[in-house]
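Let us practice reading a record.
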Amino acid sequence: MPLYFRKRITIVPGLVRLTFGPRGWSLTVGPRRAHITLDRHGNRGATAHLPGGLTWHRGRSRR
């Protein structure tokens, strides 16, 4: 049974969050249903949760 560690710190309630995990950190900006994420490697991602259970995600790596 694997163990996972993740710690989320809210910087601005409902808007900006900083998350720490075993592989580094990530910064999330935006409300719960539509946000942009930046990780320690410079990779970016955008996610939007649409009505009816649909989700749109676009990721972009620095490679």
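A brief commentary: Strands lie at 7-12, 16-21, 24-29, 34-39, 44-50, 54-60.
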